[in-house]
Structure formats: structure tokens, C-alpha cells
Amino acid sequence: MAESNEMTINLVVLGRTQTGKSAAGNSLLGSSDFESRRSPSSVTTRCSLGRSCRISGIIRRNGSELALRVRVLDTPSYPHSSLSKERVRDAVRSALAHHFGEEGLHLALLVLRADLPLCADERDHTVQFIQELLGPTWKDFTAVLLTHTDKAEEAAFTEEAYLHSASSTMVSLLSSVQHKYIFLDNQKSIIKEERATVLRKLLNFIRQNNYQVLLLKNSKE
Q1: In this protein, which residues make up the domain named AIG1-type G (predicted)?
Q2: Are strands 6-15 and 142-147 parallel, antiparallel or unpaired?
Q3: Which ranges of the chain does DSSP label H, i.e. alpha helix?
Q4: CA torsion sign, 120 to 184 to 196 to 13?
Q5: Could you give the CA distance from residue 101 to residue 159 in angstroms, rounded to a whole number?
Q6: How many distinct helices (H) and strands (E) make up the chain?
Q7: Which domains does the chain have, with CATH numbers?
Q8: What are the residues whose beta carbons fall under 8 Å from the beta carbon of 161, sequence distance 6 or more?
Q9: 83: which residues sit within 8 A by CB, 6+ positions away?
Q10: pLDDT digits over 25-34, tens only?
Q11: CA distance 77 to 94
């Protein structure tokens, strides 16, 4: 929390190469802070913090409207085309402690492509990586952000039909994070109303977690 009439939420985006992490971060911020493009190699090589302007019309408390500020930490992918797991993990851990060490992290957003199946090995490696970053309570502070939903829509999948047809691995992952998931088409510029809807869903996840934050220390295992 910042001023009494303003709320700040701290988010980090995590995921594999070309899942749309940086584009998702830009969508949440309503900006183009993070470089995002198609590439045969990993684009993001360092952590970067983006900040939104004051956003109105999203949240109210005690009958009064609060201004919302969003801070998003963009991170290198894991696996990465040129960085080892240890370098990615240590860089993300250090950036989390540096940027969110005092205020804490509200949510880690695990970015997955809705148009690609999630395999067990990928799930296991990703979950292990997040556990190493966030610790044993990672499930309480993680939500899944499903990107490239335009491809699923082209295949005539509604959100309900997609979840009904999803692999057991995906269903298990969504269940483990208490069904905190959001569909996001970040291949096109997100419009103001869509952004507001996504932010309200994120705020609802944070509210369900009693506005708890995860305090992070910069320590190596």
C-alpha cells in the first residue's frame, strides 16, 4: 500500500521462451516498457521493472475509489537459450529482493501458451524453478496467465471448452494454484476495458489471499 487513496500491486512474470511474458507485462502496464518480439532465441536477458500510471475505476474500498498502480518485474525465461538455470534463478531472485524486498510480492504470474499442450516434464521443471524462487508457499502466490488465446479461439475453443479439453497436466497445475488463472490475448494491443477486467481478476486473487505478500530475501541456497 502507498497513500491511503492508492494501492500498489507487485507482480512478476515467469515462463518459458516465446510464451509472451514481456508482452503480457506490457498489457498489464498499458505500456511498451518491455521488449517483445518473435525470435528463434530468448529475447529477454535481464530483469526489468515496469511501472504503470495511476489507474482509476478498478478498485474501491470503504465506499471510496482507490487509484491503482501496477509494478511488473519482467524476467529472463527458463529454460533460456543462452543463460544457465542458475544464472536465471539468481538474477530473478536478486531482482525480486531488490525491487519487492520491502513491500513484498503479491503474485507471480506463470505465463503459459494456451495453444500448446503442457507436458509433465515441462510442468515439473517449471514448478521446481518457482519453488526455488518463492519457497514452500509458492502456490498461494502464483497464478497462471494463459497467452496466445487467439489461436485457441481460431480453433473454436471457448475458455470452458479449452479447460474441458486441456491435458491432465494442465488441469493438475491449475488445481494446485487454487484455479487462479486468466486468459489473455496479448498478440494484439489490449484495450482499456480488457485490461481493467484482467486487473480486477488479479485483484480478486490477491483479495482471496487476504492481501498477503511474500517477503523475499536475496540469499542463495
Answers
A1: 6-221
A2: unpaired
A3: 21-29, 85-100, 120-134, 149-154, 159-165, 168-176, 192-208
A4: positive
A5: 36
A6: 7, 7
A7: 6-208 (3.40.50.300)
A8: none
A9: 42, 45, 76, 91
A10: 998 998 888 8
A11: 15
